[in-house]
Amino acid sequence: MIDIYYYFIFTLIFLVAILLAVLFVGNDEKVKKEQETHKGIIDCCVKSHNINETVNLVFKMIASIIKADEYAFYMVDAKNSQFTLKSVRFKSEPDNKLNVSYSGLIPHKKQKYFFPLAISIDKVKTEMCIIEVEKAKLLNIPIKGGNALIQLKLVSKFSLKKNVKKQLESISHQFEPVVAMMMSIEQLNNRIKILETSKQAIRSIVSIINGEGIYKMAVGLFAKTISAKGGFFLKQESEEIELMVDTGFSNECEVMFKYDSELHLFLKEVLGDKKIAIISKNDNNFENIPVYLVSEGVRQLILFNINYGQNRGIAGFWYGSIYEMDSYQLSSLLLMFSKIAEVFKNPLRIADNSNDSVKTLKLISTLVDDLSPYTLGFSSLMEYYAGGIANELKLPLSEIRDIELAAYLSNIGIAALSYDIFLAKGKYSEYDYEVIKLHSEVGADIIEAINGDVKVANMIRYHHERIDGCGYPYGIKGNEIPIGAKVLAIAQFFVAKISPRNFREASTYDEAIEAIKQVSDTQLDSNGVDALLKWLYKTRKEKASCEGSLDHCWNMRFVSGEICNKCPVKFQTDKKCWEVSGNLCIAHGNKCETCFIYTEYVGRKNIG
Description:
By secondary structure, this protein is of the alpha+beta class. It has four domains: about 50-180, Beta-Lactamase (2-Layer Sandwich); about 210-335, Transcription factor LuxR-like, autoinducer-binding domain (Beta-Lactamase), CATH 3.30.450; about 355-540, Hypothetical protein af1432; about 545-608, no CATH class. It contains 21 helices and twelve strands. Strands 1, 2, 3, 4, 5, 6 and 7 form a seven-stranded antiparallel beta sheet that branches. The protein has a five-stranded antiparallel beta sheet with strand order 9-8-12-11-10, with helices on both faces. A hairpin with a 2-residue loop joins strand 8 and strand 9 (about 240-245). Helix 2 (about 50-65) runs antiparallel to helix 3 (about 160-210) and helix 4 (about 210-225) packs antiparallel against helix 8 (about 325-345). It is globular, with a radius of gyration of 32 Å. It starts with a helix and ends with a helix.
């Protein structure tokens, strides 16, 4: 009996030992497998520097644990307080492999739910959870550290089991250092791109001063302003026609267009002496448009005659569909196109003033202003308001003159950078934001290189710094910021508020005043803000009983003669500009009801 008892005990111990051994080996194997997978992800990240490849490995790890229809990976964008979509995969049938999504090769039926391009950080819980969005069941897997988020689109009957959740949490922890590495790689790639952008910026300024870069900048921006897919400029000299620049075409198409003298002559013939000509797909003339342009998507061409100095040329813009225009739109388009002639005169003016660095720099700034109806007169507005603040602060006359010059040239760096970014709608990407931040430094470098005035250059370099130290490019604060840069920052804030953009209306004059009060002593210098407010109050108080604007609209907006000389307001000075039928407010991006000339007048009635 005792022998049987001991036999039973020994057998039990033996079985337990075997079970423990199996569990130990199993766990050891599992840990080893996890370590190998983790190492594989890091190796992939280091070797390829490709976010998609690394994310795909993680998706495969998750897919081995939980089957989902679609997988999305987001990385944090701290500046905009959101997670930005970086990669999407979907499960293919019947092999269950993960394939790249958002590709034109994928049938639309594969994607019944589209992950948003951005998710606000405050809408994402720090714990793993199931949510419902647009009737889709999603599993949120926040990556430890808060720098990334994985979302899975689940089957409708899915429930999250404890063991599955535990495995996913393990992946979340393992993925944290990988995400940190991915963010470092992305930031490094952005820095490299930014350095290249900075070098290109200096080359662009040299090109503009030499006259070559002006054509490309003007045609590219005007194409974007009128929502065309691309544009070109043909320069005429005696009987010769030369393609100076084109945008929106492929490299192959560009080469064919450049040497297609038959097409150049045809376009010249169609336009003749007319101001504008339109060739659409439904017109007989469209038969003469070559196949290589049609294959690029050209369905309509708008041609415009340009006379600048002793030179002539044809500006053309193309659309991918037929764009119907009424007489009002055509007249607005003609007015806008007439500014191209003014822009194209700049190389001649720059050449004439090549020995006067200040005039050369001012011409380049004016060129930037003239490229969009929303920025017309910007440099002069900056000079006017910065000068008013500086005078109210009772600064020395020489410093006031330096501040006015720096204000006029404050956006000159934009001439050397990608103008598309400055016209973009919505929130900027991290790279776009870094490029935008470059414009103050590039502008300062241009001033130093051409004019040699370090004091004026530094006013431009630091005019996006903030009193609280949260500005750029260096994050300096308070008294570390030159007084001139503080004045420029205040002027730019106010001018930006009272000016419209392609994505928003202007604030009213009094709304802009209230807005600047809100950022006094945080973003902007309080002494400078007080000076602006006192100066504006005194100016408006003096005209409190005046039935009309503070001055003629062309003086207040610093609008070019090209517009003013065609505007009926110029010849009906007995009326308020907003009361004159057919005024040309739209030529400088305005509507009368939101133009600061009108809103200042309305608000002035309440000044006691």
